[in-house]
Amino acid sequence: MATSEPGLMGRLPLTLRAVVGGVLIGMTAANVWPLLIFRFTAPIAAAIEVLFLGLYFWWASGAGPPKRWAANRRDFARAGHLSGRQWVWGLIAAISFAATVHAAMVVLFRLIAYPAAAFHAGYDFAFIPTLQLQWLACVVSALSAGVCEEMGFRGYMQRPIENRHGPWIAIAISAVMFTLIHLNKSWASMAMTPIILGAGVMLGVLARRSASLVFCIVGHTLMDIGLFAYWWTQIAGTFPQRPISETGLEPSVYVEAAVLGLALLVFVIAAARVKRRPAD
User: What's the CA gap between 249 and 9, in Å, rounded?
Assistant: First the structure.
């Protein structure tokens, strides 16, 4: 009986297939929202996007056609039961992850001046008529990035590499690719690169420890709500602090550093405790 020749993707090494597949699965879906928000009013665009994200998550998690790939899709999406204990520690990890990223940015911009214009470039929501609708756009933008990027990077990219080469190689590759994808942004300066890379590592660890993408999606979405509303669109205000080269080591600097350390510590503890137990 003749066997069919593998396609182009099938002939690529597994790691390269995972990287290409993860980028395509994640970033193609993430770019649906920008098309909608510029084509429709914010409420209509948001409703369509939420419906799309629901269908996307449903399909990518193993439902729908083609059935012969359903098991792989379910594995890549880390679909499975979560215990009550996992929900508690997973949500703590998600919240502390977002807090760590924002605290790290605060500390960074006490060391160097906050480039407000560079962060705002490309994120002007002035075409959306009211502040309430601008907030809606920020939340849906964050949800879109959280769902699609986590499915792509921590799911379809990281998971198959984990299966072949182990977690640490997989986490490193997904974190580096996550960083590279974001380096074309105006805010992605050299100083921001360690924060982007660190966020990718933390999300990769959380996905591995929890055996789920749910908490990565929650943490990524919370992080991006703050990024969109405060750092990028600046509808929630603009960072007022000045670098220590101008202010000196005032008391607030120590408080900001302590908040960063505490948030990171809570994440480490929560990520250690969220692992699924045999009893679960």
Answer: 54
Look up residue 12 and give its two tokens. Answer: 């690529």
Question: In whole angstroms, what is the distance from residue 244 CA to residue 259 CA?
Answer: 17
Residues 6+ apart with CB under 8 A from 168: none
Residue 209: both structure tokens together: 């420890």
Give the span between the Cα atoms of 169 and 167, in whole angstroms. 6
The closest alpha carbon to 270, from 82, 85, 100, 92, belongs to 92
Residue whose token pair is 């990028």: 232
pLDDT tens track for 18-61: 999 999 999 999 999 999 999 999 999 999 999 999 999 999 99
Listed by start position, the domains of the chain span: 13-273
CB 263 within 8 A of CB 100: yes
Residue range 236-268, pLDDT digits in tens: 999 999 999 999 999 999 999 999 999 999 999
